[in-house]
Amino acid sequence: MKSNLEFTGLADLKQGAAITLFDKALHDAILNILDPNYPADRKREVSLSVRMMPDKDRRDARIEIECALKLPNKTSITTRLFIGMRNGQVLSAEEHRDQLPMFEKDANQPAAKITAIHGGKP
To answer: Quick check: 77 and 91 in contact, CB under 8 A?
Structure first.
């Protein structure tokens, strides 16, 4: 432990609270970089501000520590949703190239009648 007459550094202020604030913001910035919902090519900014306000006789100073994190907005996404009915229930599924048929013909609905047309007359 330092005596009261030794220089105080960032790690000493509020028992290292500034370092904890910075580390948390840096962690959140890294999580944001790894999140595919945010653009990869945008800057993230972590800034630590230390403001000192001395009293009039210059014997002490009030210290204010703030850590700010600037992140980009989420990336806009688009998708396609297939919708339909199965057994009277509304169903939906997101587009997928390997998707098997999902909407079955309702068993209560009669099969389509095929009519042969010869010469334009039924």
So the answer is: no
Q: Measure the CA–CA gap between 8 and 14, rounded to whole angstroms.
A: 10
Structure tokens at 55: 């009293």
Segment 4-29, tens digit of pLDDT: 678 889 999 999 999 999 999 999 99
Closest to 21 in 3D by CA, of 29, 90, 72: 29
Whether the predicted model's global pTM rises above the 0.85 cut: no
> How far is Cα 16 from Cα 114, in angstroms, rounded to an integer?
81
Q: How far apart are CA 59 and CA 56, in angstroms?
A: 8
